[in-house]
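Posting for a labmate who doesn't have an account.
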Amino acid sequence: MAAGFALEGRWLDLGRGRRVRCALGRGGVAAAEVKREGDGKTPLGDWPLRRVLYRPDRGGEPETALETRAIMPDEGWCDAPEDPLYNRPVRLPYPASAEKLWRDDRLYDLVVVLGHNDDPPRPGMGSAIFLHLAAHDYRPTEGCVAVRRPDLEALLRSARPGDSLRIVEGA
């Protein structure tokens, strides 16, 4: 594994003895080979930190060595397994099913795109697996990992290209 961050159970290890609470998928966790589109499961494995997306109207560009890009109001992420742009960013409106990235609930104000099922995407094996902001009550995600904004910002400050997030089963 490249240098990075580990997640076990409901805790994300940021290194140097700092563990923070996180939310996982509503369906729990699953091995990547059995993860399926829409199952609400967080995939187990080592997932590269691909790039950071952020809402420019809700905070500036985050401090990080990772590639960053501002989200625009017409951006989405294709979650239609039969579409050629499955598990890829798209412009909205899009003719196939796509998740809106510019959200009102603030959960996607800061997003790390994880390298799950993206090289190349395999239809139906899961899309839009992100590390993003948690709801106030840490309610489960649709399969992503979610943490509080200060915790994600701390992770981003120490993240380097080539780092990954390791998701393992735990207590």
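Reply:
Got it, the structure tokens are right above this. The mean pLDDT is 94.
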